[in-house]
């Protein structure tokens, strides 16, 4: 009987010790992963930050809070925002952040993940409300950087570092989409007209240069004439054309007389000639001058005859 009693006591003590160790050991030893940190509170006061690896605590006295140091994501729900130019859009975003100071993340804010989420939503609405629609669509990187800086500035006291913020989707009203499509179409038409006008301007400039070259070298015009004839002859349609020599038009140019009385062909406009020049006289002016001289001489001779006749009568 005594042996049985001793065995029962032994079993009882073993069970008590096992239960005690089962309760105490998990409270005494903790294993932290590489990306985890343990914020230790001893009797309610901050003691230190431990980890990673095996850490030893005082059971029932030390309490810990685990903090994940990996990059976390926040999906900012779609927000209805009125831009600076009074356009209603629906925008959602995603925020990437991580904890850099586990002590501040636990002590300075109650729930750092929820607090960062609400801060990201309010900052998104505030920043996009100060931007115009064109800026929101064209300068997305600038807006993302501005939102990141504002959130990072507010969460610095919480021991949180905002890695990046990305505006993910911008939903426009259907009326605005149609207006933007019409604007883009008109812009393409304007560019096409500008390009066409530039082409016409360049073509005109080249034609002016070609005219100056042909003026300096008249043979080039004859070559161009022959080339045009060759192009017309290569076509399948039938054309009838009469080639005229290039010097045919020279017969219609006005002729002038030099100081020696020889005729010469004038290459200038007769209207530009100085008609008072005594060395150059046109045919028409010569005829007029000859007629006027003969008329004047006739008048003078007639007058002298009348005078002579009158004198004879007086005698």
From TrEMBL:
<dbReference type="InterPro" id="IPR043202">
    <property type="entry name" value="Band-7_stomatin-like"/>
</dbReference>
<keyword id="KW-1133">Transmembrane helix</keyword>
<dbReference type="InterPro" id="IPR036013">
    <property type="entry name" value="Band_7/SPFH_dom_sf"/>
</dbReference>
<protein>
    <submittedName>
        <fullName>SPFH domain-containing protein</fullName>
    </submittedName>
</protein>
<dbReference type="InterPro" id="IPR001107">
    <property type="entry name" value="Band_7"/>
</dbReference>
<keyword id="KW-0472">Membrane</keyword>
<dbReference type="Pfam" id="PF01145">
    <property type="entry name" value="Band_7"/>
</dbReference>
<keyword id="KW-0812">Transmembrane</keyword>
<feature type="transmembrane region" description="Helical">
    <location>
        <begin position="12"/>
        <end position="29"/>
    </location>
</feature>
<comment type="similarity">
    <text>Belongs to the band 7/mec-2 family.</text>
</comment>
<feature type="domain" description="Band 7">
    <location>
        <begin position="27"/>
        <end position="184"/>
    </location>
</feature>
<feature type="region of interest" description="Disordered">
    <location>
        <begin position="260"/>
        <end position="315"/>
    </location>
</feature>
<dbReference type="InterPro" id="IPR001972">
    <property type="entry name" value="Stomatin_HflK_fam"/>
</dbReference>
<dbReference type="GO" id="GO:0005886">
    <property type="term" value="C:plasma membrane"/>
</dbReference>
<dbReference type="GO" id="GO:0098552">
    <property type="term" value="C:side of membrane"/>
</dbReference>
């Amino acid at each position: 009987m005594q042996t049985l009693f001793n065995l029962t006591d032994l079993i009882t003590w073993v069970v008590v010790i096992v239960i005690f160790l089962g309760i105490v050991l998990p409270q005494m030893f903790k294993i932290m992963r590489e990306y985890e940190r343990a914020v230790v509170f001893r009797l309610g006061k901050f003691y230190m930050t431990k980890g990673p690896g095996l850490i030893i605590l005082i059971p029932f006295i030390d309490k810990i809070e685990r903090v994940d140091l990996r990059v976390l994501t926040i999906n900012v729900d779609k927000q209805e925002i009125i831009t600076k130019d009074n356009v209603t859009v629906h925008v959602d975003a995603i925020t990437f952040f991580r904890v850099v100071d586990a002590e501040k993340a636990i002590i300075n804010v109650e729930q750092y993940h929820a607090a960062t989420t609400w801060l990201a939503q309010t900052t998104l609405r505030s920043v996009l409300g100060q931007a115009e629609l064109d800026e929101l669509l064209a300068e997305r990187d600038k807006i993302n950087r501005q939102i990141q800086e504002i959130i990072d500035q507010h969460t610095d006291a919480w021991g949180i570092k905002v890695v990046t913020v990305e505006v993910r989707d911008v939903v426009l009203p259907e009326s605005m989409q149609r207006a933007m499509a019409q604007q883009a179409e008109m812009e393409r038409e304007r560019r096409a007209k500008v390009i066409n006008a530039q082409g016409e301007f360049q073509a005109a400039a080249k034609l002016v240069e070609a005219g100056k070259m042909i003026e300096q070298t008249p043979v080039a015009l004859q070559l161009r004439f022959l080339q045009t004839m060759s192009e017309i002859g290569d076509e399948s349609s039938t054309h009838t054309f009469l080639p005229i020599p290039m010097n045919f038009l020279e017969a219609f140019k006005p002729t002038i007389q030099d100081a020696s009385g020889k005729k010469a062909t004038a290459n200038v406009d007769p209207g530009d000639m100085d008609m008072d020049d005594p060395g150059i006289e046109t045919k028409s002016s010569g005829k007029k001058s000859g007629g006027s001289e003969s008329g004047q001489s006739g008048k003078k001779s007639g007058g002298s005859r009348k005078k002579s006749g009158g004198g004879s009568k007086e005698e």
